[in-house]
Amino acid sequence: MAQRRIAIIGSGFSGLCLGIQLKKAGIDSFTIFEKSDRLGGTWRDNTYPGAACDVPAFLYCFSFEQKTDWSRLWSPQEEIQDYMEHCARKYDLVRHLRFGTEIAGARFDAGAGVWRLRTTGGEEIVADVLVSAVGQLNRPAIPAIPGLDRFRGACFHSARWDHGADLAGKRVGVIGNAASAIQLIPQIAPRVRHLSIFQRSANWMLPRGDRAYTERERRWLARFPLFAWLHRWSIWLRLELRFPIMRKNRFFAWMARRAAEKNLRAQVADPRLRAALTPDYPIGGKRILISDDYYPTLARDNVEVVTDGIAQLSEDAVVTRDGRVHPVDAVILATGFQTTAFLAPMRIAGLDGRSLDAEWADGARAYRGIAVSGFPNLFLMYGPNTNLGHNSIIFMIECQTRYILGAIRTLIERDLAYLDLSRSVMEADDARTQAALAGTVWAATDKSWYKTEKGRITNNWSGSTVRYWWITRRFDGERYRARAREPVVYPATAPADTLEARPAPDAAGSAA
Ligand SMILES: Cc1cc2nc3c(=O)[nH]c(=O)nc-3n(C[C@H](O)[C@H](O)[C@H](O)COP(=O)(O)OP(=O)(O)OC[C@H]3O[C@@H](n4cnc5c(N)ncnc54)[C@H](O)[C@@H]3O)c2cc1C
Mutate which of 61, 83, 342, 393 to test ligand 1's pocket (most atoms within 8 Å of Cβ)? Predict the structure, then answer.
């Protein structure tokens, strides 16, 4: 049985997870293409001061490679990056990684039953199976603020932190007040002369309750796997119990809102500031933030929350719509990511040359967030409708890995050329997902990174993580159209023994 050449695009948690499980399954014929020069994805890119996970670290790692010596409950970025590099070394992934290789696009060659990938450098790579593991939060969103290019001071995005920029004693403007901003602001506020936070809308925030793991805890977690297992899954359960908030359960939403309001009251004394920090959308509609030090930081004399919209940037100031000029030496764009253009800017063409952009003209969609009809042997990780507002993405990534591995096994065991999802299955699944999403708090919230401009929720999963696990627990090959491999035609003069052997597929490029 011939193995399949598998091309994985991206070396974040998704790409690594699939690579590890392929190795464990004895499949070695894969390459992980990474545009950057280091693995890690989110955790390589987000090096801003205070960067840390916002799901407890004990759950924010692979279940099959439980790290038991996290320094803190919510561990810092460096530790997560180290963990990922440890995984790559331990599972022998390093030789499968090809850095500095950005995939510009891929075209399905139906005749040969292969994907032809093209790098930005012009190289062609042939693969039987293509897996996109490019993440949802990989491309920074740069706001279209007039005058942004005119500003003369340091100006950078939180996910591209300029470590050479010295902020000490400077007047700094932070545009944005969501997950990254609330982590970095408490870190830089004590160092800068003045900090202006430009807030478009307030966010719900709960206390984080962060602390270091004690030596004793770490010893016990390392020594008693059952203890570690219970710790991991108790965190998962605690987070999962937040899911009813997303489904607009009145009691759970009331509890969460009460906790957030109490947190705000306890930490912010000024009633006007409290009013400015109170969101006007239901709790859970946007990511619920967790922090112990953001609200106290706002009470500092050198910190100001500006709620008037930004009109423009001048050479040395941010000008708000009320005409106020806020002089700044540096501007930090904590403005999030381009989240709804999945797989962009790659150009993907499936059967009959149909482009994924055309397929997704009304918003991205995929069966289980993984497969798209008309794009055979293409599988997505952390794809459309697989983000969570309440639990760890790594749980979802492990589910997707299991499912994709099932598909690859099916291809190998049944000696198939390709598997193409039935269109009616995809459409019915999408209709179900969107109907379920219509009853969520995200639908009741005007704008968020979970939705397109037109209001379609493209990012979030509609159900609990248990449900996602259930529907991805095995590869449901019966929902796919399977095409057998073409019988190989040999020249009449070929020696008899080669007629027995099925030659390895055309080995152009190097997906393996
Ligand atoms: C600051 C921050 C904190 C977060 N905290 C949490 C948390 O606490 N809990 C949680 O569950 N989730 C969190 N997330 C979400 C996080 O993105 C996911 O948990 C997870 O890291 C996604 O992994 P990934 O491998 O799917 O994608 P990424 O980590 O985004 O990796 C994608 C990789 O693909 C590469 N790539 C992209 N395009 C190409 C191309 N064309 N060619 C080659 N390579 C390409 C990128 O360079 C990158 O390395 C956080 C996100 C951010 C930004």
Answer: 393
How far is the centre of ligand 1, averaged over its atoms, from the C-alpha of 36 (Å)?
13
- For tokens 């449901």, name the residue: 476
Closest atom of ligand 1 to CA, residue 16: 25
Q: Does 60 sit in the ligand 1 pocket, CB within 6 Å? A: yes
Tell me the per-residue pLDDT of 103-144, one tens digit each, with 9 for 90 and over: 999 999 999 999 999 999 999 999 999 999 999 999 999 999
Nearest to 480 by CA among 416, 421, 434: 421
Q: Whose CA is closest to atom 29 on ligand 1?
A: 41
Rounded to 5°, angle at Cα 227 from 223 and 233: 135
pTM above 0.90, yes or no: yes
Q: 1-7+22-31+339-468 belongs to which CATH class?
A: alpha beta
Per DSSP, the three-state class of 394 is helix
Per-residue pLDDT at 496: 36
- Rounded Cα distance, 142 and 123, in Å: 30
Q: How far apart are alpha carbons 375 and 348 in whole angstroms?
A: 9
Q: Does the Cβ of 33 fall within 6 Å of ligand 1?
A: yes
Show me where the domains of the chain are located: 1-7+22-31+339-468, 148-204+243-333
CATH of domain 148-204+243-333: 3.50.50.60
Q: What sign has the CA pseudo-torsion 269, 271, 276, 277?
A: positive
Do 1-7+22-31+339-468 and 148-204+243-333 share a fold? yes
pLDDT category, 485, cuts 50, 70, 90?
confident
